[in-house]
Amino acid sequence: MSGIIQLLPERTANQIAAGEVVQRPASVVKELLENAVDAEATSIKLYIKNGGCTHIQVDDNGKGMNAFDARMCWERHATSKITKAEDLYNLHTLGFRGEALASIASVSEVEMKTKNATESAGTRIVVNAGNLETQENTAATQGTSITVKNLFYNLPARKNFLKSISVETKHIFEEYQRIALAYPAIGFEFYNQDKNLSKLKGGTLKARIVELFNLKEDELIDATEETEIVNISGFIGSPKLTKRTRGNQYLFANGRFIKDHYLNHAISSGYGGLLEDKSYPFFILFLEVDPAKIDVNIHPTKHEVKFEDGRHVYTLLQSVIKKTLGAHFVIPTDTQLHNALGYSNTASNNPSN
Ligand code: ADP
Ligand code: MG
Questions:
Q1: Which of 14, 109, 216, 350 has the largest count of CB atoms under 10 Å?
Q2: What's the gap in Å between 341 CA and the centre of ligand 1?
Q3: Are 275 and 268 in contact (CB under 8 A)?
């Protein structure tokens, strides 16, 4: 007996997965940069053209792949990073789904060159809309270079959703900044239309922030706290360094950029009265928690994670900010403020009143 239910072909399934993983060129950039970081590269170069819509290329000097892996990595659920679901609770890499490359390849034209440390020849692979077109030996140095051309060329409906070149370029630059901040020891270069936009050499986090945002060192205040539940490290901007928009607020959890309004609020409230009305503090803070106490598996791209002990992290963040600012700036107490404003303070000083 036959029914009406059928299994979707692999290529269709990949295209559907791509709907989640690949929303725009910046999503491709994020996945490729993260793979290069996971491959332990010390130098990563990003090249884009036309907002990444026609050309995205990421070259790294990481581990590279042998010929077998070079073919395998384009399959869905192909990953070297986990082997069982429990591994998700002990995750030390950015990737784990094994979905990114299969999804990207299903909606673009991809070329990869890769070589690992042991094989003498490298491998060149061409995948077009999910079809493997070429696999051959090639001369290559250790590392991986992946070029993604004409994103969504086979899905015109998705292509129509792309914004202007300048908007897409801006999104890409944001992803680049986030990864560059999270991995200051790695050297990064960014080229747009063959023009170099950014060249960051590997070094300290402070040096990276100063270089990326064109700041002075003394505008940054070191914020560190170690507790049993979470380690906090990074820099917060002096209260002068505030902005009218939320632009420069970066929070990372175990090396991943996260968007968390709740925790951002903890930081802003830690500034208390030092912030002008409707202004936002500058911060680049890293939270390190036991991977078992954080769920990164909520959404493939939505920069969201769930902390087992979110409230505790909130309180800690808030108090670290207060303490850090308190050590650098004289924060007037309420009583001092009252005195300065010429109010009588007898009421607050005299318990019998
Ligand atoms: P995930 O990162 O979730 O494992 P991907 O689809 O992004 O899934 O990549 C699949 C696999 O291909 C990775 O697990 C890794 O083994 C390999 N890979 C991808 N990019 C690189 C790279 N730049 N260098 C070395 N290996 C890579
Ligand atoms: Mg990946």
A1: 14
A2: 62
A3: yes
Identify residues whose C-beta is under 5 A from ligand 2, the ion. Answer: 35, 95, 100
Residue 317, CA distances (Å) to 113, 239, 292, 314, 333 in order = 44, 17, 20, 5, 21
Residue 260 Cβ contacting ligand 1 at under 6 Å: no
Question: Is residue 338 left, alpha or beta, with left meaning phi > 0 and alpha meaning psi from -120 to 50?
Answer: alpha
CA distances to 122, 144, 281 from 64, rounded to whole Å, are: 9, 5, 40
The angle subtended at Cα 263 by Cα 227 and Cα 231, nearest 5°, is 20
For ligand 1, say whether the CB of 237 is within 6 Å of any of its atoms: no
Please state at what angle helix 165-182 crosses helix 205-213, rounded to 10 degrees. Answer: 160
pLDDT in tens, 208-224: 999 999 999 999 999 99
* 122-128 and 109-115 strand pairing: antiparallel
By residue count, the chain amounts to 353
CB of 73 shorter than 6 A to ligand 1: yes
Q: What is the pLDDT of residues 29-56, one digit of tens each?
A: 999 999 999 999 999 999 999 999 999 9
Helix, strand, or coil here: 195? strand
Instruction: Identify the H or E element spanning 338.
Output: helix 334-340
Please give the pLDDT value at position 240: 82
